[in-house]
């Protein structure tokens, strides 16, 4: 397995391990947007944005931790 494939795999595993809090968080924020009167469209957009941003943050943090850079500090914990 080459280095790029290894980093992609690490990111995938990290996102899969944290999916138990990413999806409920996105659903909760989408529900809050709907209840506050934003409508179904805003709720779906909020759900999608929170989901995409959370997945990207977790994946990038995983790649950063596994990149081998001694100065890389994880910002989402271990």
Features:
single chain, 78 residues, mainly alpha, 1 helix, elongated
Indicate the structural class. mainly alpha
Radius of gyration: 15 Å
**Residues in helices, as a percent range:** over 70%
| Amino-to-carboxy terminus distance | 24 Å
Q: What sort of overall outline do the alpha carbons produce when their principal axes are compared?
A: elongated
Number of helices: 1
DSSP E strands, number: 0
If you had to describe this structure to a student in words, what would you say it looks like?
The chain contains one helix and no strands. It has one helix at residues 3-66. The protein is an all-alpha fold and 78 residues long.
Write the layout of secondary structure elements.
Layout: H1 3-66
Compact description:
This protein is mainly α. It contains 1 helix and no strands.
């Amino acid at each position: 397995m080459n280095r790029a494939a290894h980093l992609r795999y690490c990111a995938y595993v990290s996102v899969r391990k944290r999916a138990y809090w990413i999806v409920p968080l996105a659903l909760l924020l989408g529900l809050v947007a709907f209840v506050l009167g934003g409508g179904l469209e805003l709720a779906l957009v909020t759900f999608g944005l929170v989901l995409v941003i959370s997945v990207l943050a977790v994946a990038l943090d995983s790649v950063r931790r596994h990149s081998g850079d001694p100065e890389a500090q994880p910002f989402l914990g271990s």
